[in-house]
Amino acid sequence: MAQHPPLNDEDRANLVAYLDGELDEAEARALEAKLNLDPNARTEAEALRQAWDLLDYLPRPEPSPSFTNRTLDRIATLRPSATNQVQRRRRRWLLRLAWVAAVVLAAVAGYAGASLFPGPAGAARSPETDEALVRDLRVIENLRQYQQAEDIRFLRELEHADLFGDTNAGY
Amino acid sequence: VAAIGETSGQLALRDPDIRLMLRVRDDVPGAFEELVELYQHRLVAIMHHLLGSAEEGEDLAQEVFLRIYRARKRYRPRAKFSTWLFTIANNLALNALRTRQRKPVVPLEVRDSGPLGPRPAEQLVRDRANQPAQRIQQQELAGLIRQALEGLNERQRMAVVLNKFEDMNYNEIAEVMGLTVKAVKSLLSRARTNLRVALQDYIYMDGEPAAADEA
Question: Is the whole model's pTM more than 0.90, yes or no?
């Protein structure tokens, strides 16, 4: 009888995969051919199969009758209660309301501020102001020159034509 | 369902558990209770097999449900719902097993998992065993098999439990455990080889292989 080398790790992995129905058709056929020829491989396959079947002797554990209730009781402590949900919803609404109130308040304060303290650009001029501006227009236009003079009398003296002699001297 | 992407929508159409979880996300009354009823048996069984203790198994299964509830608002379907659930279970169980390794506890014997003694299903199994000796043999055998399972490292144990008791294929196990399919294949191969070694006294070879050896 031909001598067959002992199974290596890969052979054994293929044998187990074969027993588990995990080999594809070609691989399974090749392994079956090997099993037909190699009694050691057949013995190993049978031993592996029997050892696997022995696990069926283990009783199937079942949850105790109280398991469901105990589990659901623990879950109940995590569940948000109806009261909490109402409170959370109310808090959310209050927060929204506070935001709206803040925006409205800011708008009202802005409007009031603008009305009470008008800025120079936007300020409306009264008729008296306009009148004063018209009356002093010449002064305003020549303000820079007037600022050079020491006083008003000096300026008036400048108006006299004979101050610097005859103006019609004809130079 | 309309609010989520097309792929998620397609997943939801195929997987009724995703639709249930979306109802949980939207706080539909009774949806979470339905989810617990639907998955508690599978989850408790897996955790019990992994940890070898009914009490710890239930505590951890409960923790999985709590995590799901806390994460419900962030839930986006990207895979089968059960894959998501067992991924959470896998992470929690592996953490628990690692913590236990750091703080060893006395392993529990095989015992009735109900606080009030054997449950009807367990009692039925016991009644079927006519002989007291046979009963003891069955209990001993279950104890030895559990010991063999507990002898595997935590990842091998998880892969075995998902494959054996949840009927998950390699792809699904890879997704739950965050591994490649090749890694799962290797993991299960080593796990099953270890189980075969641990249980070899209860494996009976008769017929052809023995005859071939003799030849």
Answer: no
